[in-house]
Design a protein that fits this description.
With 568 residues, the protein is an alpha+beta fold. The chain has a domain of 129 residues: Four Helix Bundle (Hemerythrin (Met), subunit A) (Up-down Bundle). The protein is 55% helix and 12% strand. The strands form three sheets. Strands 3, 4, 5, 6, 7, 10 and 11 form a seven-stranded mixed beta sheet that branches. A two-stranded antiparallel ribbon has the order 1-2. A two-stranded antiparallel ribbon has the order 8-9. Helix 9 crosses helix 16.
Length: 568
């Protein structure tokens, strides 16, 4: 079935639930009014529905390939990317100074969700370029900004990030790539990187790699890592692609999904690069791009969940199978269990979409106001958006296959592709386990202050809703209270006990936040939104109590289980 962008839900959330109106009250985003945002998202929806979505199956059936050192991308990908670039979509949140639109990240989040639903393989290329633009804006020299940002924002050049090496995955301290000064302000970068999404393409003039490497005087560990900008073609004196740099694609990975997106093994053989940010501070600079990407990857999960839901709903409404509670012979959407699956998918997607948009509003408010509380809110929500967004993507894709029955296992329906494509999102840009550890570790160094402040908002909202929707408000208030107690317990534990319960804690937090946003939606439009809120609050939210029991079980039993018990 053709993809349709969920404009109604997105605009409703922006207007009524996640506080988007706060943004255009700031000088930084004064022009980002509801009317302007609606017009932009409507045009983005058209692009995704008409130009990008038709490439979803094309990329799967005609994978990217490497021949004679040249990466060939699927048919139509280049033309679609050209339309993305021509529309200015790559520079949506980028600074106006270098050709961007200067719009809120929240708008980019809505765009990226729609693009991910339409064709995740192609969207990855856009997300990486957006992330590199942000990293350069924050950390590059004025000279590098002037040369590279207009090209990246226009889409003439594309961006990547190169972190992982064969021996250094999540542990970047084990990184071995080297960079030596050339004596002219540039550096010779040498090393091998793996899992490089869109490491090359055949439709942009240049590909610009952000590469982590060590200088000769670098200290051991992550404190000795620097960041370098290494282009495929070295710009000439006029700023155009010049001599071929000493960087090449060694091979492309054969993957479970995302066949349209080339994932490269990259080799740097004394390639010319330029330092981005301060020496030995590369990880901090790269994390600017990674934090952007972590929200973006969470949104990729939401986008795939939405696409899987739309296809499953269409199938369930068309597939006739037996007597139903509503008719003697009707579609499977009328059967109670299929109805349950569809209702859960819809409620889950609405909840995590709200979390992601609220996360983006916090990022924008931190940018616009420089207020520490907004920065703390954005930091707290980022691992939740990434981990829960991608978990829901995988779960929704699996449920979508289940609704298709046997046909879900047959490739021509396209239902299985959603699961194959989205599965990696729980792994890349920091595994979901690492996201959960980040939430209970670094994000709780404030003693849980940011988390507790957010929970107070949830409880205050539930209190205000008691007079109007008491049956929904009470369980939300109680769930937030239970999570508050678990948070107090958590911050009193050592890191091993925290990490043992990190994943269930993150999921429980997402459950409570999802219920909070559903309640706000039901208050804003009781006639249209209460039924869906009831599904989430009465059927999904109760999961939080079992999750928090796991959190407070600690680590002792895990380590009491010895190697022998694990083997047998």
């Amino acid at each position: 079935m053709p993809y349709r962008a969920p404009l109604q839900d997105v605009t409703f959330l922006l207007a009524n639930v996640v506080g988007y109106d706060q943004l255009h009250k700031t000088p930084r985003f004064a022009e980002a009014t509801a009317e302007v945002t609606q017009a932009i998202l409507s045009e983005a929806a058209r692009l995704c529905e008409q130009v990008i979505a038709p490439l979803q199956r094309v990329g799967d059936k005609h994978p990217a390939r490497l021949e004679n050192g040249i990466v060939h991308t699927p048919p139509g990908f280049g033309a679609a990317y050209a339309q993305i670039a021509a529309g200015g979509w790559l520079g949506l949140p980028a600074s106006v100074q270098h050709g961007g639109m200067g719009l809120p990240q929240t708008v980019a989040t809505a765009l990226n969700e729609m693009m991910s639903s339409a064709c995740l393989s192609l969207q990855i290329a856009s997300l990486l370029t957006q992330g590199q633009i942000e990293a350069l804006e924050h950390h590059a020299s004025d000279l590098l900004k002037a040369l590279y940002l207009p090209k990246l924002i226009s889409g003439a050049w594309a961006g990547t990030m190169n972190l992982t090496e064969p021996q250094a995955g999540s542990d970047l301290a084990a990184l071995r790539s080297k960079a030596a000064p050339n004596g002219d302000g540039s550096y010779a970068v040498t090393g091998q990187k793996i899992y490089i999404s869109w490491g090359d393409n055949d439709f942009t003039e240049n590909v610009c790699h952000l590469v982590l490497a060590r200088l000769p005087d670098a200290p051991e560990g992550t404190r000795g890592i620097s960041l370098f900008l290494v282009p495929k073609f070295i710009p000439d004196s006029a700023g155009n692609p010049g001599a071929r740099n000493a960087v090449r694609v060694l091979s492309l990975e054969h993957k479970l999904g995302l066949h349209g997106a080339p994932t490269a093994v990259m080799e740097y053989s004394g390639a010319t690069g330029w330092l981005v940010g301060a020496a030995h501070q590369g990880l901090a600079a790269m994390f600017t791009m990674m934090n952007n990407a972590r929200v973006g990857v969470g949104v990729q999960g939401i986008g795939v969940a939405e696409a899987a839901y739309q296809q499953a709903l269409a199938y369930a409404q068309a597939r006739q199978q037996g007597r139903t509670p509503l008719s003697a012979s009707g579609p499977i959407a009328q059967h109670a269990d299929v109805r349950r699956m569809l209702a859960h998918m819809r409620a889950e997607i609405f909840a995590i979409r709200a979390i992601a948009l609220a996360n983006s509003v916090a990022i924008d408010m931190a940018c616009a106001t420089q207020a520490p509380d907004w920065a703390a809110r954005a930091a707290l929500l980022t691992p939740i958006t990434k981990a829960h967004g991608t978990d829901i993507g995988v779960e929704a894709a699996g449920v979508g296959m289940q609704i298709h029955g046997g046909m879900g296992y047959i490739e021509q329906t396209g239902a299985a592709q959603f699961l194959r494509d989205v599965r990696v999102t729980t792994i890349y840009e920091g595994t979901n386990g690492i996201q959960a550890m980040d939430l209970v570790g670094r994000k709780m160094l404030d003693g849980g202050a940011a988390a507790l402040h957010l929970l107070q908002e949830v409880q205050d909202g539930a209190e205000a809703a008691r007079a109007h929707l008491p049956d929904l408000a009470e369980p939300v208030w109680q769930a937030a209270q239970t999570l508050r107690a678990a948070t107090h317990w958590l911050v009193a534990q050592d890191m091993t006990d925290r990490f043992a319960g990190a994943q269930p804690y993150l999921r429980a937090f997402a459950r409570v936040l999802g219920a909070h946003y559903h309640l706000r939606a039901a208050l804003a439009d009781p006639a249209a939104r209460t039924a869906l809120a009831e599904v989430f609050i009465h059927r999904i939210l109760p999961e939080h109590s079992g999750l928090l029991a796991q959190v407070q079980a600690g680590a002792a039993a895990l380590y009491a289980l010895g190697d022998q018990e694990l083997m047998t």
